[in-house]
Amino acid sequence: MGKTAFIFPGQGAQYSGMGKDFFDNFETARRVYATAGEATGLDVAELCFTENADLDVTEYTQIAMLATEVAILKVLEEKGLKADCAAGLSLGEYGALAAAGVMELPQLFWLIRCRGIFMQEAYPSGGAMSAVLGLDAETIGRICRETEGIVSIANDNCPGQIVITGEAQAVQAASEKLEGAGAKRCIPLKVSGPFHSKLLAGAGEKLAAELEGISVHAPKIPYLCNVEADYVTESGKIKELLVRQVSSTVRWRETMERMLADGVDTFVEIGPGRTLAGFLRKMNRDVKVLNVAKVEDMAAVPGQTP
Q1: What is the distance between the alpha carbons of residues 118 and 123, in angstroms, rounded to a whole number?
Q2: Strand, helix or coil for residue 75
Q3: Contact at 8 Å (CB) between 193 and 128?
């Protein structure tokens, strides 16, 4: 018998109006947005639903994305949809935490609000990220190590798409070397910091201080963490992994390969966009990937109606 996984996207998929139809149609979703607002002191619904510049600013993007993902998740759960495991890309890992029930929602929302602020403030200028197309992770990692300055792999998304991160000059120098080594293209990303690099270690330390006061429960379903691309089934390691995640490589390709090897044959991408579905189809074109970003998308999910 096959298995079902919930997967949650990260920054970059956000758009104005995301989640509004769930808010309009389900009291469960309205409660989630209200909880996020009460926990953070922000009008999270307004942030998500109205045109505004803040939605693309890291400290606001993260709470907006997570609230939307959790609102959709809770509606699906209320309708009886269950998963065998979960995972999320970067901030999406917090969606997986919600699916696994490891924290109370007010604490989870407060934590992602802090994470966004700490990451925004950690390295306000001089950092960069670039997507490298058509080159393997081993070659990219070696060239990053050989490049002067701080540059490393931020995201190993899927075969042929890897993101590097670090000091702007080092990222540029590495990009030139990578194109010389056979990369099809290196595309600079419009981001506000060198995310998932050791330049953000300070943000992780601040997050650790916030985590001290938060209770963590054993996962109700296993989730796979970005740092180790492995299942987390006990509560003891969760805080340490979340701290490390801020400045460590997101091992998404390995995470998906692990799920596929373990018999997951249905993936439900919960939240804006179809980014994760695209990554998965580059690994296995036969896998079933369902996207739930709007109420109408629920009709494609087994046992669900919009």
Answers
A1: 9
A2: helix
A3: no
For the chain, give every domain's residue range.
3-122+198-300, 127-188
CATH number for the region 3-122+198-300 comes to 3.40.366.10
> Is the pTM for the entire model greater than 0.90?
yes
Fold for domain 127-188?
Alpha-Beta Plaits (3.30.70)
From residue 33, alpha-carbon distances to 70, 195, 280, 302 in Å are 9, 26, 29, 26
Report CA torsion sign: 123, 126, 132, 135. negative
User: How far is residue 118's CA from residue 191's CA, in Å, rounded to a whole number?
Assistant: 15
If we measure between CA atoms, which residue out of 292, 114, 301, 106 comes closest to residue 204? 114
Catalytic residues: 90, 196
Name the 3-class secondary structure at 203: helix
Structure confidence by residue, pLDDT tens digits, 142-198: 999 999 999 999 999 999 999 999 999 999 999 999 999 999 999 999 887 899 999
Q: For residue 218, give both structure tokens.
A: 């054993």
Question: Strands (DSSP E) along 10-77, which ranges?
Answer: none
